[in-house]
């Protein structure tokens, strides 16, 4: 579910691509969500919410929230922050870990337009690639942007690759030594990226992660 939050008119909210907010729940509980929109598009805060059966907040989002509902948030938070550079950029998202990657992608295409950027988005099934069509359209309009989708639990054929997303990266890019790499997704994906990508030349100091 896409969730768009509008801040009170008197509030200022300054964030950097890759950061997140905590939605505050009763009993001092909280749920963290990355911001999927870049700061240059700040009319709303865009969150991507994956439905977790029985999840206290996600079930509320899917069943109860209506336009005008009030939420209390804290942020911006986190050190997973995009840094401008001239090196080619490799973005890797797993599931809704795509959200902060989307913010970075939109920022790069607007502010760092000369920078080459490749996005790998891994998910279980085609249905989980919820912005696949938009990304393909975007890639058709920007010569410096390449998009690769990867499916781990569904038989894949063109235009999708099969397997785990880090495996697709290794198949498609023989030498990773020149890239700045940003990866966001589930812990198993992040662990695999930390181990596998340096074996193919990636500089460990230039791999930034959000698990």
Fraction of residues in helices?
10-25%
Cα radius of gyration in angstroms: 17 Å
Query: Could you list the spans in which at least 5 consecutive residues all have pLDDT below 50?
Result: none
Strand content: 25-35%
Tell me the strand order in the biggest sheet: 9-8-7-6-10-11
How many runs of DSSP E, i.e. beta strands? 11
Structural class: alpha/beta
Can you walk through the features of this model?
24% of the residues lie in helices and 27% in strands. It is α/β, with parallel strands linked by helices. The protein has a 6-stranded parallel beta sheet, with helices on both faces. Strands 3-2-5 form a 3-stranded antiparallel beta sheet, with no helix packed on it. The protein has a two-stranded antiparallel ribbon with strand order 1-4. The chain is globular, with a radius of gyration of 17 Å.
């Amino acid at each position: 579910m896409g969730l768009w939050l509008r801040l009170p008119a008197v509030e200022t909210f300054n964030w950097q691509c890759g950061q997140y907010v905590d939605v505050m729940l009763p009993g001092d509980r909280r749920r963290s969500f990355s911001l999927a929109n870049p700061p240059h598009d700040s009319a709303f805060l865009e969150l991507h919410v994956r439905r977790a059966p029985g999840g206290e907040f996600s079930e509320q989002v899917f069943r109860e929230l209506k336009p005008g509902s009030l939420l209390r948030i804290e942020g911006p938070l986190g050190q997973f922050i995009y840094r401008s550079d001239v090196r080619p950029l490799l973005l890797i998202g797993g599931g809704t870990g795509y959200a902060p990657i989307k913010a970075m992608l939109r920022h790069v295409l607007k502010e760092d337009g000369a920078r080459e950027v490749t996005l790998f988005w891994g998910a279980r099934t085609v249905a989980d690639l919820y912005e696949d069509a938009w990304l393909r359209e975007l890639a058709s309009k920007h010569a410096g942007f390449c998009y690769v989708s990867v499916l781990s639990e569904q038989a894949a054929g063109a235009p999708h690759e099969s397997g785990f997303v880090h495996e697709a990266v290794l198949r498609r890019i023989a030498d990773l030594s020149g890239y700045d790499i940003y990866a966001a997704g589930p812990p198993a994906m992040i662990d695999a990226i930390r181990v596998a990508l340096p074996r193919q030349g990636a500089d460990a100091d230039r791999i930034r992660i959000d698990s």
